[in-house]
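Incident log, support desk, overnight shift.

02:14 A customer reports that sequence design results differ from what the structure should imply. Their input is reproduced verbatim below. On-call engineer (initials T.W.) acknowledged and began investigating.
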């Protein structure tokens, strides 16, 4: 298999890992959307995935696909939302509860986008595999 095809498969595989992480973080955000008190005594903070491009190693003149990787998972520092719920055990003296800075519809959109990107990369890897198999079959004939 040529280095161009190998680098394309490696780029697709790196994207699968990155999209899987995006889905896991979105699921964690959704699962904790109502967590008003964590181990630090504060509400859960939304997390976000930061991706970066990975340039393949090899000669500068070669054609190779760039990959992607998770650079870091960061906490969203936007303010917590506040909800009036005076009977809640975490309510302040005015009856307001600080709730996580998680926007459920936004997390659903992120998760769907990551799932579609994951599927697109699986399809691309499958097409490369099929192309290589067809080339091998033609070479045998």
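02:41 Re-run completed on a clean worker. Output:
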């Amino acid at each position: 298999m040529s280095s161009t095809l190998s680098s394309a498969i490696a780029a697709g595989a790196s994207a699968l890992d990155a999209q899987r992480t995006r889905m896991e973080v979105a699921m964690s955000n959704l699962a904790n959307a109502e967590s008003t008190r964590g181990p630090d005594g504060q509400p859960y903070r939304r997390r976000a995935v930061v991706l970066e491009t990975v340039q393949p190693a090899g000669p500068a003149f070669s054609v190779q696909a760039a990959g992607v990787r998770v650079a870091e998972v960061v906490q969203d520092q936007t303010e917590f939302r506040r909800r009036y719920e005076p009977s809640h055990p975490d309510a302040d003296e005015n009856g307001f509860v600080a709730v996580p800075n998680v926007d459920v519809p936004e997390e659903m959109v992120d998760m769907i986008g990551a799932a579609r990107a994951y599927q697109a990369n699986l399809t691309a890897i499958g097409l490369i595999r099929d192309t290589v198999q067809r080339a091998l079959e033609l070479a045998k004939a």
